[in-house]
Write a structure and sequence with these properties.
134 residues, alpha/beta, 2,3-Dihydroxybiphenyl 1,2-Dioxygenase, domain 1, Signal recognition particle alu RNA binding heterodimer, srp9/1, 4-stranded mixed beta sheet, 8 strands, globular
Length: 134
Amino acid sequence: MGVALTKDSIDIGIIVEDAEQSLRFYRDTLGFEFERVQPMANGGQMHRLLCGTSTIKVIQPGSPPPAKAPPGGLQGAYGYRYWTFWVSNLDEMVERCRAAGYTIAVEPRESRPGVTISMVEDPDGNWVELGQQA
């Protein structure tokens, strides 16, 4: 028997250098719904945002971690390099990100028939993929 899921989505934790900058990206630019701030045992804070039934946990630790993830998206290193959410207004979202000053790492393009994607960098250089099905 495989995993017995109790939720049909995945939550993600993103360790950030500056929570306010990251909230401007995830909450204000992408439009994820703010749920709450939760104190963490190490003196940091977790800002919980909703993306459908997923939770985006924007975490500013109480003290800086010893290392920073290497930049470069897909080709930058092994491990988790990006995550995807699906929209019906990809071009509009890319332009919102561009207007707010965020780097468009991959301009909108068809990745396979009927699917268009783009990738945007958050303030810490993490890649977020926007996908749209025709």
